[in-house]
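Section 4.2 – Deliverable D4.2 (structural model, holo form)

The reporting period included a commitment to supply a predicted holo structure for the target in complex with FE2/S2 (inorganic) cluster. Inputs used:
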Amino acid sequence: MTAQVRGVAAPTRAQVPAGTLRTDRWWLLPAATTVGLLTFVVYGGFRAFQQQYFFADERYLTPFYSPCVSLGCASEPGSAHFGMFLPDHPLIPYAALSLPFLLVFRLTCYYYRKAYYRSVWIAPAACAVPEPHAKYTGETRFPLILQNAHRYLFYLTVIISLINTYDAIVAFRHPDDGFVVGIGNVVLLANVVLLWCYTLSCHSCRHVMGGRLTHFSKHPVRYRIWTWISALNTRHATFAWITLGTLVVTDLYVLLVASGTITDLRLVG
Ligand code: FES
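Output (structure tokens):
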């Protein structure tokens, strides 16, 4: 018995010998997406395991190390707001309690799925460009069915976003100088606001707010919140990219100040 040919090579499809008939630079977007995602993964991976320069001016904690719960956080007094209990080991990030969840949250995000299915997995890379995979089972089977965990990870991410917010607020207090405002505060605050925009514009959040309701008129508060979330949701892809950028910028700022490469400019205090 011969194997059934599927996809663009199936006998019922028009037989086009060329790989694609598109002559524009269709590969540009998937290539740029791959480079963008890869850059973030490499940078984030390096920083998560560097275990250095994560706390600056005795108050700025980078989001890559939040919450700092390793015994190693003791090297920077004041950086651990929620206790230190994980062993200090080169292979255990100081924020091992949050980073894996944040990574999987982004990995299973509906927007990022679209981005890496098209760019990294090229399934397909663009319209009228055939995919190289012989069969497609989508997210109905293992392992991609696990993408459904996203809706549960949303709740954990809300908790982590609250922790990031706490970090940004306590950063206004210097242990010796009291209330101060520096450029670092502006950077941390902007990052946390944009992180909230990304988290609240999540499709799962929209569903939590307004999903499974038969009559919006009977739930005016949920309906109102749902309309706000829906407005944010239209920008979800934008927030997904912006927050990758702000996370790197915020971390880089803390790294540069902590390493003494630059000085944090004080605006108040
Ligand atoms: Fe992107 Fe939930 S859909 S974070």
